[in-house]
Amino acid sequence: MAAAPDLLFGLRNNFYLGAYQAAINNSEIPSLSAEDALERDSLVYRSYIALGSYQLVINEIDSSAPTALQAVKLLALFLSSPLNKESVISSLKELLADAALGTNPTLRLIAGTIFLHEQDYNEALKYTHAGGTLELHALNVQIFIKMNRSDYAEKQLKIMQQIDEDHTLTQLANAWVDIAVGGSKIQEAYLIFQDFSEKYPMTCLVLNGKAVCCMLMGNFDEAESLLIEALNKDAKDPETLANLVVCSLHVGKSASRFLNQLKLSHPEHTLVKRMASAEESFERAIQSIA
């Protein structure tokens, strides 16, 4: 018997590659099972979160919604304001401690995502390390790369390749690992992003992936043109702005406009925090010798 068609393939693909509006616009899929409908709703709400529409998600998901959607709502609350951080983490841990709910893959994924944001990698891995879905394995790859443990990231990638070598998430994870390992692997990562750009509509995620590879290979002019293309798609995308800051400095152009945009739209971004920390250290050094 032929396998049943995967009705959510296009929606998942759009979400994984960062085509969030396309995921939302094409989410009306007929004849979905209850399980698929729940996954569809989860992906649509996560797409709204990725676009910064936190309040819409918070308003639409009520207390009677399934666990997966409750978890997605917690992510929206967490990202909407730093003031929500403590209450969100408390609610999250309450859900995770419930024997009946704690194994829910979406709940574990959101927990991993939130603790990754908090840079609490050990806490993130507590909920994600067992895997179970390709998304959880892909998140493990990201966590291990953040921990500078590309050896562990490679092990997770091998598991993903055994499950489905051609899956979009497996290919993305492969590119992330190649970038982390560096050297001759950068060219391989570039080819993965190039393949995506030939198969699917260009997104900020794919353009930034190609641009990072170009920068690592010393090709800053191509990187700059890819990043400007990404900026035309989304003028507030944090990774595009951060990469443009780095790229501009390398090509000898002023990076202040991109840095100011990043500070205004994403004050919590790692690059903004690092720059502020460096400026403080510089000021202290000046005062110590003044």
The gross shape turns out to be globular
How many runs of DSSP E, i.e. beta strands?
A: 0
Which regions have little confidence, pLDDT < 50, spanning 5+ residues? none
- Give the biggest sheet: none
Our estimate of the beta-strand percent is under 5%
Radius of gyration: 20 Å
Helix percentage range = over 70%
Structural class per helix/strand content? mainly alpha
| Distance between the amino and carboxyl termini | 80 Å
Mean pLDDT: 92
Q: Please tally the helical runs, counting DSSP H or I stretches of 4 or more residues.
A: 17
Q: What is the ordering of alpha helices and beta strands?
A: HHHHHHHHHHHHHHHHH
GO biological process, one term: protein transport
GO molecular function, one term: structural molecule activity
Pfam families: Coatomer_E (PF04733)
Protein name: Coatomer subunit epsilon
Question: Care to describe what's here?
Answer:
- It is found in: Cytoplasmic vesicle, COPI-coated vesicle membrane; Golgi apparatus membrane.
- This is Coatomer subunit epsilon.
- InterPro entries: Coatomer_esu (IPR006822), TPR-like_helical_dom_sf (IPR011990).
- It is a peripheral membrane protein.
- Its main location: membrane.
- The structure is a single chain.
- With 290 residues, the protein is mostly helical.
- 73% of the residues lie in helices and 0% in strands.
- The chain has helices at residues 9-16, 20-25, 34-50, 54-60, 67-80, 85-97, 105-117, 121-128, 134-146, 150-164, 168-181, 185-199, 204-216, 220-233, 238-250, 256-265, 270-289.
- Helix 4 runs antiparallel to helix 5, helix 11 (168-181) packs antiparallel against helix 12 (185-199) and helix 12 runs antiparallel to helix 13 (204-216).
- The protein starts with 8 loop residues before the first helix and ends with a helix.
- The model has no long low-confidence stretch (mean pLDDT 92).
